[in-house]
Amino acid sequence: MVSLGCPKNLVDSEGALGEIVQAGHEIVVDNTLADVIVVNTCGFIEGARSESLDAILDAAECKKVGNCRAVVVIGCLSQRYADDLAKEMPEVDAWMGVGHAGNLSETIESAFKGKRVVDACGPPAEWVEQGARVQSTPPWTAYLKVSDGCDNRCAYCAIPDIRGQYRSRPESLIVDEAARMAERGVREIILVGQDLTQYGADIGKPNA
Q1: Three-state SS sequence of 65-126
Q2: What's the mean pLDDT when you consider all of the chain?
Q3: Residue 207 has pLDDT above 70, yes or no
Q4: Separation between Cα atoms, residue 87 and residue 90, nearest integer Å
Q5: Is 135 left (phi over 0), alpha (psi -120 to 50) or beta?
Q6: DSSP string of the chain, one letter each residue
Q7: What is the pLDDT of residues 140-186, one digit of tens each?
Q8: Burial class of residue 100 (count of CB atoms within 10 Å of its CB; 0-12, 13-18, 19+)
Q9: In terms of C-beta density within 10 A (0-12 exposed, 13-18 middle, 19 or more buried), how is residue 64 classed?
Q10: Contact 167, 147 (CB under 8 A)
């Protein structure tokens, strides 16, 4: 897994890793040893887009000269430009947007069978809970996502187009995950979301 961009993206990467592990795959640190490389991209500003494209090309090179059998691109850049990039980069086996939760392991298996996937359907209208995450931060600190998307529609920002409308995570799910983090030794929990001050407004709990 190559995870780029903001802490919200990192949480998505950890959820994707959790799904991969539950499907029976093993995580490796060295890309040259991987059967599949997943690149979770950022597409917010030009520098982030360039970094994401470089990471995709690096993964594709591993496919040429290493053990890699498939390159899967997920995240914001894929959500925004999947159709165009799929035409320009045939070496990538799958493109998935931000609504990939629960479908990644199936997509990997399809890629192993030679089936190309381009799936950048819009983000869900309501909160979709991830499965168990594989924490990639130091053991004492972790990010906890409380919302996704944004309704502000600022002229300079593409987040609403990429991440969709604002979606608050149900309070019970936040509390449950925080408790699990504490049980495994996390001492610092950092709340992340596109606009934390809006939390609850869409589920009848403004300023919760």
Answers
A1: HCCCCEEEEEEHHHHHHHHHHHHHCCCCCEEECCCCCCCHHHHHHHHHCCCCEEECCCCCCC
A2: 92
A3: no
A4: 6
A5: beta
A6: -EE-SSHHHHHHHHHHHHHHHHTT----S-GGG-SEEEEEE--SSHHHHHHHHHHHHHHHHHHHHSS--EEEEEEHHHHHHHHHHHHH-TT--EEE-TT-TTTHHHHHHHHHTT--EEE-PPPPSS----------S-TTEEEEE-EE------TT--HHHHH-S-EEPPHHHHHHHHHHHHHTT--EEEEE-S-GGGTTGGGT-TT-
A7: 999 999 999 999 989 888 889 899 999 999 999 999 999 999 999 99
A8: buried
A9: exposed
A10: yes
Residue in 30, 15, 51 with CA at minimum distance from that of residue 132: 15
pTM to 2 decimal places = 0.93
User: What does the block give as tokens for 136?
Assistant: 């990639």
Residue in the structure block whose two tokens are 């499907």: 23
Question: What is the C-alpha separation between 93 and 82, in angstroms, rounded?
Answer: 12
Residue at token pair 């086996």: 93
